[in-house]
Specification:
The C terminus is likely disordered. The protein has two domains: 315 residues, TIM Barrel (Alpha-Beta Barrel), CATH 3.20.20.300; 130 residues, Rossmann fold (3-Layer(aba) Sandwich), CATH 3.40.50. The protein is an alpha/beta fold. β8, α9 and β9 form a beta-alpha-beta unit. The strands form three sheets. A five-stranded parallel β-sheet has the order 1-9-8-7-6. It has a five-stranded mixed β-sheet with strand order 10-14-13-12-11, with helices on both faces. The chain is built from 15 helices and 14 strands.
């Protein structure tokens, strides 16, 4: 008799109000039902160490504990190291830097008990109106993206953390966010094979242990209009001809693209029946487990259920260890600062020299979404720590990241109105977003691309301005 498919289910554990304590009922019930692990969102370094140690001890067996770590372990865990966005790494064009970023991410993740990184992003940055990929992609060229994805996979997995190539077969052509709707990509299969699938092929050849399927429909490949996560022909292509033998997983089941055709429980049954081996972040994980077990021998062939369980067991045996050695956080931060400095790009104009103090204005295109934004004062604080006070020399900071449920790639009308007021009188505009957004910034002020609003890049942008001012003052060119 096939065992319960609870092992294929990974509920989420979220840090809220300074604690994971509110997740205790979920942990107790989920482990009692036999889930295969958890997904961690947020938390301090010490809190995540304690959480992952406690759940493994309570389970009495290995678990997969995953997290979104596209920009380093600090993307989720406070006190660890941030890395620049994949777009910044791709533009830098240094595969050794990308490899090192993955190594550091894996070492730090494992040190707090996270053994599964939902990265690298293998999507191509093909569509300027794409609201959810953008700077999360290594770029638009399939070969370049594939090379960076491959070295990221090797760096991560050679240091004890399971990597995951996402979002198969490619989310880069969409103009909609699969958190909100089920997007459609109308490109024919031949075009997808020539471009979008190339990075996934690189990741598979590099030995990636997991592939995340997209909640995107590709009617030129599967005329049914099903999302890839529910499409037998699209998922079968991973096994043959791509020869992928690892875990095929869903994206988060709370996303609207997952439930566009049916509610969560039957959707998970359809995903496993189609070829998925693990199910991430269901909102009703109890109902999902019941539906999966009831579906074995009916909607889910018994042999398919057994294969999915076997793939989970192979993965948890290979990767389900607990914490690793303590990382050298000082050295890791120094490396991250170095590549952040190198990744900055002056898109227009000349590097200015600060005269006196700086007046910082912020145009924040990321406010108002369902998730909190990061700190926005790091740039100004870094200047202050280096002797630059407040004054009349104007700098405009523009924050615009791809964010879940944001629903657009361009700057909002509100942000554009603020820029029309602020940018013409500024001496510098710092764009914490995709470089193509520079085309929406009015005026003739120099525009510095810093890729993302994370503290790492705010500090780098402030250092750039300080260095540019020193160089101009000393009569040197930057």
């Amino acid at each position: 008799m096939t065992a319960s498919l609870a092992r294929l289910v990974l509920p989420s554990l979220r840090w809220r109000r300074g604690s994971f304590a509110h997740e205790r009922p979920t942990i107790d019930a989920a482990l009692a039902m036999g889930v295969g692990g958890f997904i961690v969102f947020g938390g301090t370094r010490d809190a995540v160490v304690e959480l992952t140690r406690a759940v493994r001890e309570q389970a009495g067996r290995p678990l997969l504990v995953g997290a979104d770590l596209e920009r380093g372990a600090a993307q989720q865990v406070e006190g660890l190291t941030e890395m620049p966005t994949p777009a910044a790494l791709g533009a830098l064009g240094d595969l050794d830097a990308t490899h090192a970023a993955a190594i550091i991410t894996a070492q730090e993740a494992r040190s707090v008990g996270i053994n599964w990184a939902f990265a690298p992003v293998c999507d191509l940055d093909l569509e300027p109106k794409n609201p959810i990929v953008g700077t999360r992609s290594f770029g638009a060229d399939p070969q370049t993206v594939g090379e960076h994805a491959a070295v990221w996979v090797r760096g991560c997995q050679e240091h004890g953390v399971l990597a995951c190539a996402k979002h198969y077969p490619g989310h880069g052509r969409t103009t909609q966010d699969s958190h909100e709707v089920l997007p459609r990509v109308t490109a024919p299969l031949a075009e997808l094979q020539a471009m979008d699938l190339v990075p996934f092929e690189h990741a598979i050849r590099a030995g990636v242990g997991a592939v995340m399927s997209a909640y995107v429909a590709y009617p030129g490949w599967d005329a049914s209009g099903r999302a890839a996560a529910f499409s037998p022909p699209i998922l079968a292509y991973l096994r043959d001809p791509l020869n992928f033998g690892g875990l095929v997983i869903t994206d988060a089941l709370i996303m609207a693209g997952a439930t566009a055709a049916q509610s969560e429980a039957p959707a998970t049954v359809a995903a496993v029946a189609a070829g998925c081996d693990a199910l991430l972040y269901p909102s009703d994980w109890r109902g999902v487990i019941r539906a999966l077990d009831a579906g074995v021998g009916k909607d889910i062939a018994t042999a398919r259920a057994d294969v999915a369980l076997a793939r989970y067991e192979n993965a948890v045996t290979a990767w389900g260890v607990g914490s690793g050695e303590a990382p050298d956080l000082v050295a890791n931060a120094a490396f991250a600062d170095q590549i952040a400095d190198r990744a900055l790009r002056l898109l227009s104009g000349e590097a200015p020299a600060v005269r006196g103090g700086v007046r910082v204005s912020i145009v924040d295109d990321d406010v108002g979404g369902p998730y909190r934004i990061g700190p926005r004062d790091v740039f100004e604080t870094t200047l202050k720590e280096n002797g630059v006070g407040r004054g009349g020399w104007g700098v405009v900071l523009v924050y615009s990241e791809p964010r879940s449920w944001k629903g657009r790639a361009d700057l909002s009308d509100r942000s554009l109105a603020a820029l029309r007021r602020l940018a013409p009188g500024a001496k510098l505009v710092v764009l914490f977003g995709h470089p193509r957004l520079a085309g929406q910034i009015p005026g003739s002020a120099p525009v510095l691309c810093a890729w993302h609003g994370q503290p790492l890049m705010q500090r780098a942008a402030a250092r750039w301005l300080l260095h540019a001012s020193d160089s101009r003052t000393d009569g040197r060119s930057d």
